[in-house]
Each structure stands twice: as C-alpha cells, then as structure tokens.
Amino acid sequence: AAIAKSEANLDVLKSLVASRDWAQFLAQDEGQISNTSVCLTLDLEADQVKQIVKLLDAEGVAYDIGAYRDAPAGLRIWCGATVEQADLEALLPWLDWAYAEVSL
After folding, report:
1. 22, 103 contact by CB (below 8 A)
2. Measured between alpha carbons, how far is 26 from 76 in angstroms, rounded to an integer?
3. Which residue from 84, 33, 88 is spatially nearest to 65, judged by alpha carbons?
4. How does the average pLDDT of the chain come out, rounded?
5. Residue 79: partners with Cβ closer than 8 Å, 6 or more residues away
6. pLDDT, tens digit, for every residue of 46-89?
7. Which are the contacts of 80, defined by CB distance < 8 A and separation ≥ 6?
8. Is the separation of the CB atoms in 75 and 91 below 8 Å?
9. In 26-43, which positions are buried (b, 16+ CB within 10 angstroms) versus exposed (e)?
10. Quick one: which of 68, 88, 86, 81 has its CA closest to 26?
11. Can you give the pLDDT at residue 29?
12. H or E segment at 3?
C-alpha cells in the first residue's frame, strides 16, 4: 500500500511535468525517477530557483524543498507514503504562482 501511495503521489508530479514546459525531472531515464524524493529542474537560473524556494517557505507552503546542495538547481519534493495526494495537488498552483513571480 505504501508503494502504491508513493506511485500515485509521483503521478501528481508527472502531471506537472507533462503540462508545464518549464519543469522537468532531474533523472533523464524514467526508470530512475524516484517515487519518494522527486527531483525537478526548472527552466530558470539558479538564483531564480532559490527565490522560488524562499517564496514557498515564506508563504508557509513548502519547507526544505530546494535541491540537494551538490545537485543542479531545482526542487526536491517528498512524495513518500506519509504525504497525501491532495497536498501535492494543492502544491501545484503554488508552484505555478512562484514560477510566474520569479520568471517575469
């Protein structure tokens, strides 16, 4: 059940990547995409990605969502079984908002 929940959570982020041209999975090979710690890259400069992370934190939307220090600039979103699918779905409009804020 935990694996199925993580896979369903990953599907939410797959829908994000499929419907936004500015977001991609860090893993190029679909078989290497994690269903728990999902890493995304954005079509932005590293400083702009950091601004998104700060905006989401300041709004109380997401904490510690930035990519690992040694990874390319991006977002790291936990999708494990402890996360509700509805919470990930609620995150998507916030990602759109934050992207729009920093990409103007």
Report:
1. yes
2. 10
3. 88
4. 96
5. 6, 9, 10, 12, 13, 34, 35, 36, 37, 38, 88
6. 999 999 999 999 999 999 999 988 888 999 999 999 999 999 99
7. 2, 6, 9, 36, 37
8. no
9. beeeeeebbbbebbbbbe
10. 68
11. 94
12. helix 2-19
pLDDT at 104 over 90: no
10 Å CB burial of residue 93 (0-12, 13-18, 19+) is exposed
Percentage of the chain beyond pLDDT 90 is 94
* DSSP conformation letters of 25-60: ES-SSGGG--SSEEEEEESS-HHHHHHHHHHHHHTT
Q: Look up residue 21 and give its DSSP letter.
A: T
- Give me the phi and psi of 74, to 5 degrees please: 175, -165
100 is written with which tokens?
């729009």
CB distance 50 to 75 below 8 Å: no
User: What's the confidence (pLDDT) of residue 85?
Assistant: 97
Contact yes or no for 25/39 (Cβ under 8 A): yes
